[in-house]
């Protein structure tokens, strides 16, 4: 967690430096491209102006050409302007250096052939424009422009754009810094909160609400943490209950054996009675241990031996197995099935769940009572109802009825031989089949458990092991 905090502390300045570097590189590229574009634009612009002058000159008499060249040199005093005839003789030179001389360079030759020339070679930009009359080149308007003049004009034109770019870049950098700070500051608080919990501090709610995805993360962490705390509490309660349940029969046996040891001699009737009580306590302890082992196996999500079985046959077999217990207590068993139902299930586990429910209906029933098992199904689900005419359960017990070691009446359950784990085992088996179980009861009238199971078993995506038999 400390490493994560250090990562956060380094993130903001480093990301700002990276963004500044990117903006700097983009700015330099922008300036280079803009300068090149503006320089080219100004060259073409000068050539176009010369072309315009040339068009005007073509309409004038030849004796006025020199005056037009002089006027152009006045408009652009920084440029050197020359006017040459078809024989390359300089008719006019704004610098007066070559007036009357013959100047026959490549630019002039190209212009005399009827093509416009634009050449940029330091220290000058040279432009030559042919003057045509009656389809033939009669003269050439030739000008020299200093590089520095064009660059100065270009710089003057692109400077506002460059300034605007750098102002925008600074604003973007400031905006990014503010956005990043506001974005990661909540994360810093969340990480600090998680670090405190990872150091073993008492769990506490983060008393701050975020209006973005961070709130979803906080809610998820709080939900998971509460589940873990609740799981830890259930584990502690389970260990405490197991210790208590195992200790109770041992304490009873300890009292019985101590009492026998104090007798000298030991009366045979007392010895028999006490030994029978000890035997009962041993049986009860074996039952608790057996149910605990069953719960552990179910919680471990062991392999589900799934196959298609007749649910009618499973119920018939279960009822046949518990019928002796029912006859002993004068309880009648009745099966009502509306149709033949085929179900994909683990036969052993489902039989265990049904046996628990039917045995509970027998144990907590009235004399000459009745337990009815109803079976129905639609296209997707099977419904099993186990209904008895017993003593019933008060509604305030419903929320905890399937908890481990929960007993509605401790004394009554002990007399009936219950361990407080039967309904927990039933619920776990039903959940393993992706089904559900509910209870309804009226005190003094009886209890009804309803199980809903999907006809087709679907293996969970998490990869719970199961075997198709």
């Amino acid at each position: 967690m400390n490493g994560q905090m250090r990562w956060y502390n380094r993130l903001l300045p480093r990301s700002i430096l990276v963004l500044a570097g990117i903006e700097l590189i983009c700015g330099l590229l922008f300036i280079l491209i803009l300068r090149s574009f503006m320089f080219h634009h100004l060259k073409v612009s000068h050539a176009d102006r010369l072309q315009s002058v040339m068009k005007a000159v073509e309409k004038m008499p030849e004796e006025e050409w020199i005056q037009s060249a002089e006027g152009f040199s006045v408009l652009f005093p920084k440029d050197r302007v020359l006017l040459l005839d078809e024989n390359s003789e300089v008719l006019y030179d704004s610098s007066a250096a070559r007036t009357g001389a013959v100047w026959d360079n490549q630019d002039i030759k190209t212009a005399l052939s009827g093509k416009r020339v634009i050449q940029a070679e330091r220290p000058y930009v040279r432009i030559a424009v042919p003057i045509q009359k009656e389809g033939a080149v009669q003269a050439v308007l030739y000008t020299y422009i200093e590089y520095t003049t064009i660059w100065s004009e270009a710089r003057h034109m692109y400077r506002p754009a460059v300034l605007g770019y750098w102002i925008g870049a600074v604003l973007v950098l400031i905006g990014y810094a503010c956005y990043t700070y506001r974005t990661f500051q909540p994360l810093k608080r969340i990480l600090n909160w998680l670090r405190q919990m990872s150091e073993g501090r008492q769990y506490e709610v983060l008393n701050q609400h975020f209006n973005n995805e961070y709130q979803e993360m906080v809610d998820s962490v709080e939900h998971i943490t509460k589940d873990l705390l609740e799981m830890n509490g259930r584990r502690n309660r389970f260990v405490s209950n197991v210790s208590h349940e195992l200790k109770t029969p041992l304490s009873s046996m300890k009292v019985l054996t101590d009492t026998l040891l104090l007798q000298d001699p030991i009366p045979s009737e007392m010895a028999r009675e006490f030994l029978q009580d000890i035997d009962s306590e041993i049986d009860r302890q074996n039952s608790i241990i057996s149910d605990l082992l069953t719960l552990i196996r179910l919680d471990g999500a062991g392999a589900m031996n799934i196959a298609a079985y007749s649910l009618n046959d499973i119920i018939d077999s279960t009822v046949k197995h518990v019928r002796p217990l029912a006859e002993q207590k004068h309880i009648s068993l009745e099966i009502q099935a509306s149709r033949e139902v085929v179900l994909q299930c683990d036969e052993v586990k489902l039989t265990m769940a049904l046996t628990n429910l039917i045995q509970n209906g027998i144990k907590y029933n009235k004399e000459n009572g009745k337990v009815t098992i109803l079976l129905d199904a639609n296209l997707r689900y099977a419904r099993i109802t186990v209904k008895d005419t017993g003593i019933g359960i008060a509604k305030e017990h419903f929320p905890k009825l399937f908890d481990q070691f929960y007993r509605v009446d401790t004394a009554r359950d002990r007399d009936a031989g219950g361990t407080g784990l039967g309904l927990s085992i039933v619920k776990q088996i039903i959940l393993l089949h992706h089904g559900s179980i509910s209870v309804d009861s009226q005190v003094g009238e009886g209890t009804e458990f309803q199980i809903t199971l999907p006809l087709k078993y679907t293996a969970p995506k998490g990869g719970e092991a199961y075997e198709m038999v």
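The longest strand covers residues 136-146. Residues 2-153 form a domain with the Beta-Lactamase fold (CATH 3.30.450.20).
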